[in-house]
Design goal:
five-stranded mixed β-sheet; 11 helices; 416 residues; 33% helix; alpha+beta
Length: 416
């Protein structure tokens, strides 16, 4: 095995774009200046040469269009989670069954007719791509399909032929990617389902005469575009991705949130109220509250109420020490990772009753809590992930092969 080289370091204004090949593994990469959109460096990442180091927010991966199916559908959902839940019904009959759950991603932009792009990809395949990127030292926050981010002018279809793949891109009307030998035959089928007003078809690479025969009545629209660098063009398209392009990292695969949850109030509200009275009195004494007699009376009332709430502690001469010890104990218990994630997980499970919590694991002193969820409906698992992220939890997730008909995911949740 070749010696692993130290990765190049990206600058603050660099975007790292990884370009996936036919299978997860070695990937082409390019660093591009976000201000000028000019290339800074490029190469291939593999076991011997990892990808450059770049912040997650500046890292993206472009997958071959052949790994997914893109459709333009009418989807008037109020939230992303609702749209993804409805997507399987719109793809019914379009996907080949393979036994693995399907992940759906929704384009952010919706046109004036209520149409938007939706991408469907095997959840197992998506997990494989993410794992391959991590193995090369990169953690993308955006996953695009090449046919949705290739920069295409309005009213045009771009056909981009390279030795490895053919990209057919029609902007907000979608597109596809496939091996070059299969592209002409698939184009006619795809075009018949895309009711888009087209002014021109631009061919970049490839055989113009063959494509004119394939286009039939639209052959008059074909124009051979000037040669351009397909890799640089694709990278620029990804770095300035249009709003209609679905980012595949949605639902359970969405980018982690870095916001910390606000501190939660302790459940023993009465005990806290008593402690608050005690601490208030103590601070006023330190500040030199003149009426010491009234302070002692208030402290005595607080002490009686405290002992009434915690009779198991009995009488104590040093109430301040007893309260401080109790506060420390309560704080340590509250900081236990499993307890800190317990409440949001319970709320999420109540909101999604089709999901079952099968396993919880935690090893001290780590802050990571590992939970395994399962459901008969893979969309319920995605919705649960969105619910947890909406509550501020940060976690990684990977799919596990279905067991007895139940789809299963394991989430590594970081305790706030």
């Amino acid at each position: 095995m070749s010696e692993r080289k130290a990765p190049e370091q990206a600058r603050d204004k660099d975007i790292l774009v990884l370009i996936g090949a036919e299978t997860p593994g070695a990937m082409a990469w390019m660093l591009i200046d976000i201000d000028t959109m000019e290339e800074r460096a490029h190469g291939v990442a593999d076991d011997g040469a990892p990808a450059p180091r770049a912040p997650t927010a500046h890292t993206m991966l472009v997958l071959p269009g052949a790994d997914a199916l893109v459709k333009r559908v009418e989807l008037n959902a109020r939230t992303e989670a609702q749209a993804r839940a409805a997507a399987p019904f719109l793809f019914e009959g379009s996907l080949a069954g393979g036994g693995s759950p399907t992940h759906y991603a929704i384009g952010a932009a919706q046109d004036e007719s209520g149409m938007r792009l939706v991408a469907a990809i095997s959840a197992v395949r998506l997990a494989e791509w993410m794992e391959a990127a991590r193995a090369l030292g990169a953690t993308p926050s955006f996953l695009w399909l090449d046919c949705t981010v290739w920069p295409t002018e309005r009213g045009a279809i771009d056909i981009v032929e390279t030795p490895q793949r053919t990209i057919v891109a029609a902007g907000a009307f979608g597109g596809f990617g496939i091996e070059p030998d299969l592209a002409p035959a698939l184009f006619a089928s795809w075009r018949s389902g895309v009711f888009a007003p087209i002014d021109r078809v631009r061919l970049i690479g490839g055989d113009a005469e063959m494509w004119r025969r394939q286009l039939g009545a639209e052959a008059r629209l074909l124009e051979v575009a000037e040669d351009r660098d397909p890799l640089l063009t694709l990278v620029r398209g990804a770095a300035a991705a249009p709003e209609h392009a679905p980012n595949l990292l949605q639902g359970m695969y969405a980018q982690k949130k870095t916001e910390k949850q606000p501190l939660r109030l302790w459940r023993f509200a009465a005990a806290l109220a008593v402690l608050a009275v005690f601490l208030q009195v103590f601070s006023m004494v330190v500040a030199g509250w003149r009426d010491a007699r009234e302070a002692r009376a208030t402290l005595a009332v607080a002490a009686r109420e405290f002992r009434a709430l915690r009779p198991e502690l009995g009488e104590t001469a040093n109430l301040q020490s007893q309260v401080a010890t109790l506060v420390r104990t309560m704080s340590q218990a509250q900081d236990q990772p499993v307890l800190k994630v317990n409440e949001p997980v319970i709320r999420a499970l109540r909101a999604h009753p089709l999901v079952r919590l099968d396993e919880v694991r935690h090893e001290s002193p780590e802050r990571t809590v590992r939970m395994r969820f399962s459901s008969l409906d893979p969309q319920a698992l995605e919705a649960l992930g969105g619910e947890l992220r909406g509550q501020g939890l940060s976690f990684d997730v990977h799919s596990i092969a279905p067991v007895e008909g139940r789809y299963t995911v394991e989430a590594a949740i970081e305790s706030p």
